[in-house]
Design a protein that fits this description.
The complex is a heterodimer of chains A (about 550) and B (about 325). Chain A is α/β, with parallel strands linked by helices and about 550 residues long. Helices cover about 40% and strands about 15% of the residues of chain A. In chain A, helix 16 runs parallel beside helix 17 (about 475-480). Chain B contains twelve helices and 16 strands. Chain B has two domains: about 5-175, Rossmann fold (3-Layer(aba) Sandwich); about 190-320, Rossmann fold (3-Layer(aba) Sandwich). With about 325 residues, chain B is of the alpha/beta class. Classes of the chains: A alpha/beta (about 550), B alpha/beta (about 325).
């Protein structure tokens, strides 16, 4: 089984947009903590939780307990996406007569716990877990607690009790976003170490300062530390937690409050404040333009691909791009599924496998079995029937569905019916077959034109730019509409993979900020541009935005 | 009525085991007081359905809520001083508040012991005199203060069968047996123990015996008192109170609790809205208690005016004003 990465990503985006819609309509609520746990919720709702929105009280359903109840918009939005109620109901959030109360309430189908008063959800979860055991049921309890609420003594009463009663049918997350209502957690009540100054990134960098995991370990828990915005890490942690017997498991998910919206990120002000309505379209545009970096390991040392995978992991790559070449469809030969299978245990980072092979339909199952998370095949070697089969196999196995087109190919007519199902479209900007080629300039225009066709055909996936992508052109590739970027020699060919990936991100980020400034200008002229820039109070963001605005001709 | 004494906690523990045999959904939780509360016997009989969470009452209440949400009937017990006051948030938000369709609140039974001044030697810090006030202010929660061990046994059965959150307070020491084994109990219905026409004494818990004693002594002075055991404080028997007001012209309300927002207040609320008559409240007069050894407890009660003599005095006071 693949990661189901794309379905999770898509639904996380939908849920985040609903949080903005709901809190904006309510003019209050808690977007910050809803966004820090967005990927955790996404993984649970789209992969792990067993539930039936038509029968919310199905007795064998898994129970999701949101202990940090103020993040209710994050829960309600996922319930809406999952089909418990129509997404338009999110606009009733916090309003008189609504089922969507300010804090989660049993009035709302799918809600299992009345949250609001903090520090209670873990005890309540233990009660549910003990009942499941008494009844011989195998449903599981998933619980999300906050780091701020861990100030509550009852959390630690529950921690002891869960260990005593060997509650192993419950998986707990701490949404460790480092921010509570008044300020940073480490200033208000340190869980790790006292924060000196205001720079949260210091806490992130220095793992030796993290004491929260030690606390839970000392209470007898199985503790798993992850980056709480990485779907593959969340997935892997849940798997490990769910397999652990005899002791309770907790996943310490380091997250960013307000994740996904730059001006909200790491900003305590966005703990409990709604965006202004005029900002919502800009925020949505920002949420829609998340991007991924995918180093292509064939640009590295082909004799030691294991090491290249490790370099990608250390470099914080979003995907690892695996170019499979068969010497027939393209002149070169690289490796096949057997190699991918060998590489798979080295990392949980999604494998973005690009099959440059003839008759991919004959081999598709091998790549699923090898552990790929997305498999992209070429239009040039598929037709409606074979691609239909490929798509079905991939979807059944929770593997992303990708289609690629060569520089001299356009999307064939038969492919249009599949566009809505595509998770990824690779637009080749070099002739495939070997690494180190130069970007074909006409690919920019080609991508821009494709965006329109894709939109008309309800594309919900990601365009991946592949071939000759460098620091010089990646910004324009983003503007064209690409959101995933394969870097061969430009990334994996560099000594400091982590450093170069960071540089790629910064260039793309600048490009995205330009788009958002332009969007703000379209919607509300200079005034809105200024107001939007002024929201970015944390770190250097504001000065950087002012600089970009100047470059765009704003004063 | 004989002079027989009986222990409420023993009856509670026995009833739990009997109920536990009949109903596999019964679970019992304790907080390091399970020997004292006599729930440990249930634990021996049904170890899988018994959870001692240690000295962690907030956790006790909330785990009970979780068990109840998942379909269990959860009895959570410890001393009165450690539940309503200490855990009012957990009780309110996790037991009283959660409501789905017709199930108002979760199916948790909070049964405490050591209510009121009669805790004695442990002193004022341990004498719960505010539990009625706290618990009856929370929607969906029923409040019971049984008068004797037979009431405890019967009410334990009833609340195990009736959906919803209940609070029931027991007394530390043995109490006189008031009711016969054949007495029927119904939540929301008071019991008329003695009829009378001149005044009504409405009582709960240990004050029921005092009320009967007061009525007996007043009879000798030619005053006919009606005595009500109002073990069901919430819901309260409005009809019975209104009838008593109408027929006897005055009510003395008795409780081992602060007169502020307690049982007497509940009686006054009903009577003032239905058939206003003079009311007097017996109970602690907005003051805390203090230590008293068992043989000194009558002195402690006397200090706070919770005696049959004071009840009789208040009856006469009402009659002289009417």
């Amino acid at each position: 089984m693949g990661l189901n990465y794309y379905k999770i990503k898509k639904n996380v985006l939908k849920a985040r947009k609903l949080v903005i819609k709901g809190t904006t309509a309510a003019a209050s609520g808690h977007p910050g903590g809803s966004f820090s746990m967005a990927e955790i919720m996404g993984c649970l709702f789209n992969k792990y939780l067993r539930f039936d929105p038509k029968n919310p009280l199905w007795e064998d359903r898994d129970r999701l307990i949101l202990s940090k109840g103020h993040a209710s918009p994050g829960l309600f939005s996922n319930l809406a996406v999952a089909g418990y109620f129509d997404p338009s109901e999110i606009e009733t959030l916090r309003k008189f007569g609504s089922r969507l109360q300010g804090h989660p309430d049993l009035k709302c189908p799918g809600v299992e716990f009345c949250g609001g008063s903090l520090g209670l959800g873990l005890s309540y979860s233990i009660g549910n877990a003990l009942a499941a055991k008494l009844d011989g049921k195998n449903y599981r309890i998933y619980t999300i607690i906050g780091d701020g609420e861990s100030d509550e003594g009852q959390v630690w009463e529950a921690a002891m009790a869960a260990a005593k009663f060997k509650v192993d049918n419950m998986t707990v997350f701490v949404d460790r976003n480092f921010i509570q209502q008044d300020s940073y957690t480490e200033k208000i009540m340190p869980l790790d170490e006292t924060l000196e100054g205001n720079d949260l990134s210091e806490m992130w960098k220095d793992a030796s300062r993290w004491k929260l995991s030690d606390k839970w370990r000392a209470f007898g828990w199985n503790v798993i530390d992850i980056d709480g915005h990485r779907i593959e890490q969340i997935d892997h942690a849940i798997k490990k937690a769910n397999q652990t017997k005899g002791v309770p498991s907790i996943i310490i998910a380091r997250t960013i409050k307000g994740k996904g919206v730059e001006h909200m990120e790491d900003n305590p002000q966005w703990h409990g404040k709604a965006p202004k309505p005029e900002m919502a379209p800009i925020i949505n545009a920002e949420l829609e333009s998340q991007f991924m970096i995918a180093p292509s390991i064939i640009a590295g040392d082909m004799s030691n691909l294991e090491n290249e995978v490790k370099r990608c992991a250390e470099g914080r790559a979003d995907y690892i791009h695996l170019d499979v070449m068969d010497g027939i469809f393209v002149p070169n030969t690289t490796f096949d599924h057997t190699k991918i299978k060998q590489l798979r245990p080295l990392t949980v980072i999604p494998f973005d496998t690009h099959l440059m092979i003839n008759e991919p339909v004959k081999h598709i199952r091998d790549y699923v079995d090898a552990g790929c998370d997305i498999v992209t095949v070429h239009t040039e070697v598929c037709d409606e029937s074979s691609f239909g089969e490929i798509k079905d196999v991939l979807q059944q196995n929770q593997v992303g569905v990708g289609l690629a087109i060569n520089p001299d190919t356009n999307l064939p007519q038969w492919s249009h019916k599949f566009i809505a199902d595509l998770d990824q479209l690779i637009v080749m900007s070099v002739v495939p077959g070997k690494s180190g080629q130069k970007y074909i300039e006409s690919s920019h225009e080609k991508t821009q034109n494709l965006v329109k066709i894709l939109k008309d055909n309800k594309f919900e996936g990601t365009i991946e730019a592949d071939g000759g992508v460098t620091l010089d052109n990646v910004g324009q590739c983003f503007v064209d509409g690409a959101r995933a970027f394969v870097g061969g020699s430009a990334i994996i060919g560099q000594k400091d993979v982590r450093g170069i990936i960071r540089e790629f991100r910064n260039v793309i980020l600048k490009s995205r900020r330009k788009l958002l400034i332009q969007k703000a200008n379209e919607l509300g002229g200079t005034e809105l541009v200024n107001n939007w820039i002024n929201l970015h109070v944390i770190g250097e963001k504001k000065n950087q935005l002012i600089q970009i605005a100047k470059e765009l001709g704003f004063n | 009525m004989t002079n027989q004494m009986a222990d409420m906690r023993t009856e509670y523990g026995k009833a739990l085991i009997e109920i536990g045999k009949e109903n596999p959904n019964i679970v019992v939780l304790g907080a390091d007081t399970t020997d004292s509360l006599k729930t440990a016997g249930f634990g021996k009989q049904f170890p899988d359905r018994f959870f001692n969470v240690g000295i962690a009452e907030a956790n006790l209440v909330t785990i009970a809520a979780g068990l109840a949400y998942a379909g269990k009937i959860a009895f959570a017990s410890t001393y009165a001083i450690f539940l309503p006051g200490r855990c009012v948030d957990q009780i309110r938000n996790q037991i009283g508040y959660p409501t789905r369709n017709d199930n108002k609140g979760l199916n948790v039974k909070l049964v405490t012991s050591h209510g009121g001044l009669t805790v004695g030697a442990d002193g004022g810090s341990h004498q719960q005199l505010e539990d009625i006030a706290i618990m009856r202010a929370i929607p969906n929660i029923s409040v019971l203060i049984p008068a004797d061990a037979i009431s405890v046994s019967k009410l334990t059965w009833i609340i195990s069968q009736q959906y919803g959150p209940f609070y029931m307070r027991m007394t530390r020491s043995e109490t006189p047996v008031i009711h016969s084994e054949s007495q029927e109990f119904e939540i929301g219905k008071g019991i008329t123990l003695r009829d009378g026409s001149d005044c009504t004494i409405a009582a709960c818990g240990i004050t029921v015996k005092m009320a009967l004693d007061a009525a007996e002594s007043l009879k000798k002075e030619g005053i006919s008192c009606r005595v009500l055991d109002m073990f069901s404080i919430k819901p309260i028997d409005k009809e019975l109170l209104e009838k008593a007001a109408r027929e006897t012209g005055g009510i003395v309300a008795c409780e081992e609790h602060n007169i502020m927002a307690g049982f007497g207040s509940a009686v006054a609320e009903v009577v003032s809205e239905t058939y206003p008559v003079p009311i007097r409240r017996i109970g602690t007069q907005d003051k805390f208690g203090e230590s008293a050894r068992d043989n000194e407890i009558p002195l402690l009660l006397e200090k706070h005016g919770i005696t049959s003599i004071n009840i009789a005095k208040k009856v006469k006071e009402i009659r002289s004003k009417s």
